[in-house]
């Protein structure tokens, strides 16, 4: 598939591990690549954010398709001033997410793609608990369905925070200041999508440019794809931009 | 109504073909209730290699097509997706395990991608004149097709994550060999192949290979 002499470009969406391999093979044959790989996308809530709206956005951007999206919110980084209020409202909302049969149009949380994936996520949750991560909402397994788990007071350097979870696990990290929040946001090998919540749009834009990621959204969540906007990541999130120019 | 579940084969050179010599099959199951949606005939490494040869050969003609021909195909593809919207949503829900909201987002994004790609078709054949340093000389810059595009897409949002490569590639006169994740063969491959077949895309320009790594390996 990769070494055929008849193709001039490989477009791949998937894991960073496989993407790097494809990049190597393509490079050796001077093929072009578009690699859209993993993410560890931060959702940053600044001191002056509208908490209600930030919570709504975080619920959508964390749990759509059970978290199985490259652009999904992987870390929720909240300024200490609104940390408690955010957690309270977020947990309350997440508790109420309907789960079960996806053919029922009310369902929000459906199954993960396969059993192996569920097993893998269970290990991540167990390991996080063993390392004393604080649980604010306990999830449960029913077949291939995993209901949401929320960890709070998470250390950004922990395995939990540094893993692309691809599952309905929310990880909340406290920041001392707005600057600290941006520093934490950048502290990952990945750089696909990110989001900042603030009532000050120009300050938000200024901070957005300080996050090293392919895309940053202000007062929105990380899962956004507009055919007219260049799509792609920086750092370990890939090479190339998928864009349709009008 | 199109019974997408009955398309359990690869789409190569304009035809729906079973896997070759190996005879292996893959059970495409609903991740929620484990019911079997399809028993897919897995394409072999030889069929994959053959698809690239076919795609290369066919692309020569497609590169000469007019912008209107390419636009017409893409408009029909978007029409097909819209006409079969409800059936497609049903497949996305049952095959990817996505919610009703997720399925709607996925089909909407896919249609948007195809409709935006229509605008790209004009970029082929256009030339831009750039000033020359020496008087009397002229510089012209053209955008040409690249040739054959390899596309490999995942299981999560298979339809739009496949189409974002396929639609622009075809709009710009390229051919495509596409391998969706076989866990979501219909959403990521069959529906797209059916749409291009229905739209009258010349054979060999879009080839969709349903296979797995055990069959083709990732190394080669």
UniProtKB/TrEMBL annotation, chain A:
The active site is at 36. GO terms for molecular function: oxidoreductase activity, acting on the aldehyde or oxo group of donors, NAD or NADP as acceptor. Keywords: NAD, Oxidoreductase. Pfam families: Aldedh. InterPro entries: Ald_DH/histidinol_DH, Ald_DH_C, Ald_DH_CS_GLU, Ald_DH_N, Aldehyde_DH_dom. Residues 1-241 form the Aldehyde dehydrogenase domain. Gene3D superfamilies: Aldehyde Dehydrogenase, Chain A, domain 1, Aldehyde Dehydrogenase, Chain A, domain 2. SUPFAM superfamilies: ALDH-like. PANTHER family: BENZALDEHYDE DEHYDROGENASE YFMT (PTHR42986). Belongs to the aldehyde dehydrogenase family. This is Aldehyde dehydrogenase. It comes from Gracilibacillus boraciitolerans JCM 21714.
From TrEMBL, chain B:
It comes from the Bacteria. Keywords: NAD, Oxidoreductase. InterPro entries: Ald_DH/histidinol_DH, Ald_DH_N, Aldehyde_DH_dom. One of its GO terms (molecular function) is oxidoreductase activity. PANTHER family: BENZALDEHYDE DEHYDROGENASE YFMT. Belongs to the aldehyde dehydrogenase family. This is Aldehyde dehydrogenase.
